């Protein structure tokens, strides 16, 4: 069974567990809002376990016959400069230099499936002819904005990013380099971010969920105009206000002490950070928030352990059983072949029983424990 959650001998498959983490993050990013996630665990009740089973359908480990495509990483995000970048071509490249394309929607959103091989580079050209760039460490969320372009340029040593993407297999920066560069962006723009209600100490401009609606991170983008002046080997950046005056003088060596940007943290544009991880919850959570511990039991698997998932940083917990169990905006997002058979909630612990009917039939139970931090 290819990429099953467990190997045939019942031992946990680390590769599949990593995929499980990616699936959960994508499930959260796909919810209509953080409130929808909070109101009920239904949207991720089935998806995490399905993540480990999705590749089981063929019943063997042989690759597709006839030269079929291999596995892909699906990346979703928003392309925007403040205004959305609609109906434009997104190009993605993997660590081996393989490229694919996809189109943005009218709201600047996009989904692109890239042959597996992290890290991934992304680019898009807007209607004014400016090209913007981004980076993804795995399947999941990756925006393309002037903010991500500033960070990737910093991480790549200010080389022209067109050249970096053209030679991505050899010139790609590491995830740590990009994360450090994202902190530099936040430190340079901290005053602008705070004025728009964005926490510069935690927001990850690559993975943050936001819309082109003039709020949060989009308001930050509205307040700035980024341009690059490039020679054959290096670029300098200018960050101006909409009127053309200097907004920020770029400091590549600015202190980033206290800026705790993380790949899993992707806070939405308006502050607060939802953090997803396998196993234990964060040691130092934000006071007053809630952690939601998700544990899964599958009928017929006996004592085989399924990793717990902790979601930190929720602003509240469901107020009642009807709120936990009856969120139609979340139940509508359940994957095909999954149905809820029962749901209870006592104010602290919610329990959902469900049945998977495709690709195989399984009954399973998910327990959600809400802990105030």
Structure description:
The protein has 373 residues and is an alpha+beta fold. The chain has two domains: 14-64 and 279-372, no CATH class; 72-248, Immunoglobulins (Immunoglobulin-like), CATH 2.60.40. The protein is 23% helix and 27% strand. The chain has a six-stranded antiparallel beta sheet. A hairpin with a 5-residue loop joins strand 15 and strand 16. Helix 1 packs across helix 3 (47-53) and helix 4 (146-155) packs across helix 7 (175-188). It is globular, with a radius of gyration of 21 Å. It starts with 13 loop residues before the first helix and ends with a strand. Residues 1-68 and 267-273 have low confidence and may be disordered.
Produce a short descriptive summary.
With 373 residues, the protein is of the alpha+beta class.
Write the layout of secondary structure elements.
Elements: H1 14-30, H2 34-39, H3 47-53, E1 72-78, E2 89-93, E3 99-103, E4 109-115, E5 120-125, E6 131-136, E7 140-141, H4 146-155, H5 161-166, H6 168-171, H7 175-188, H8 190-195, H9 217-222, E8 225-230, E9 235-240, E10 246-248, E11 275-278, E12 290-298, E13 309-314, H10 321-325, H11 328-331, E14 338-345, E15 349-356, E16 362-372
Parallel strand pairs: 1-7
Antiparallel strand pairs: 1-4, 2-3, 2-5, 5-6, 8-9, 9-10, 11-13, 12-13, 12-16, 14-15, 15-16
Helix pairs in contact: 1-3, 4-7
């Amino acid at each position: 069974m290819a990429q099953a959650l467990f190997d045939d001998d019942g031992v946990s498959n680390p590769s599949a567990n990593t995929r499980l983490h990616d699936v959960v993050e994508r499930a959260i990013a796909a919810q209509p809002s953080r409130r929808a996630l909070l109101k009920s665990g239904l949207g991720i009740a089935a998806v995490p376990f399905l993540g480990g089973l999705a590749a089981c359908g063929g019943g063997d480990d042989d690759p597709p016959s006839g030269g079929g495509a291999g596995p892909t990483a699906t990346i979703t995000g928003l392309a925007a400069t403040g205004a959305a970048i609609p109906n434009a071509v997104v190009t993605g490249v993997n660590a081996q230099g393989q490229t694919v394309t996809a189109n943005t929607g009218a709201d600047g959103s996009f989904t692109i499936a890239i042959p597996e091989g992290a890290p991934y580079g992304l680019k898009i050209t807007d209607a004014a002819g400016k090209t913007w760039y981004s980076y993804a460490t795995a399947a999941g969320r990756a925006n393309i904005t002037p903010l991500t372009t500033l960070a990737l340029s910093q991480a790549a040593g200010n080389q022209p990013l067109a050249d970096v993407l053209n030679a991505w297999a050899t010139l790609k920066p590491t995830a740590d380099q990009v994360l450090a560069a994202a902190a530099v962006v936040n430190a340079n723009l901290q005053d602008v971010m705070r004025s728009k209600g964005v926490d510069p100490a935690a927001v990850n401009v690559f993975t943050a969920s936001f819309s082109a609606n003039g709020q949060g991170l989009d308001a930050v983008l509205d307040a700035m105009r980024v341009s690059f002046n490039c020679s054959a080997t290096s670029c300098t950046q200018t960050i101006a206000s909409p009127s053309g005056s200097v907004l920020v003088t770029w400091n590549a060596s600015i202190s980033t002490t206290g800026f705790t940007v993380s790949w899993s943290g992707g806070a939405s544009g308006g502050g607060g950070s939802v953090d997803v991880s396998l196993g234990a919850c964060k040691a130092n959570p934000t006071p007053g928030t809630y952690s939601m511990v998700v544990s899964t039991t599958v009928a017929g698997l006996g004592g085989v352990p399924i990793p717990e998932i902790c979601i930190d940083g929720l602003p509240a917990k469901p107020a009642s059983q009807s709120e936990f169990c009856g969120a139609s905006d979340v139940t509508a997002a359940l994957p095909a072949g999954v149905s809820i058979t029962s749901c209870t909630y006592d104010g602290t612990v919610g329990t959902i029983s469900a049945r998977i009917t495709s690709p195989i039939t399984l009954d399973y139970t998910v327990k959600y424990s809400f802990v105030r931090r």
